[in-house]
Design goal:
Arc Repressor Mutant, subunit A, 3-stranded antiparallel beta sheet, single chain, about 150 residues
Amino acid sequence: MGIDQDIQQNKFRNAYQKAAINLLYTYSWMRDRTKAIFDTEEITPQQFNILRILRGSFPKPLSTLQIRERMVEKMSDTSRIVDRLVSKGLVKKIICKNDKRLVDVMITDKGKKMLERLDERQDEIDAVLGNLTEKEAGILSDLLDKIRTGNQ
């Protein structure tokens, strides 16, 4: 099925409008499918994103500002999401060595173990794009980069 059938709309202003609607619809569709995987660990996609970022920087802690800059979805409530992860024992806050007024965030062993369990399900996450060949996935990624590069 194409976007026309999925949203039951066969007229679009132009190909750009159709592509933009298709991109937003596909994003939502992908989010629904990956959310089901994150639900098994009782975390949100945003929490997963923060854990992924902290694992990548480990053992170096990051400030919430640094986390926000690296997030897929830039959110102003990064601190609130970090607090939820702290309450789950997946990350910890530590006093910044350079400025005692600031707090840095670091992933815990429990957080790393959760990501390891999700790593084992990476094939399921990749399968969301399973209708594409690896070459097509690369082309799609390049096209998405091109969209952002031309509009910054």
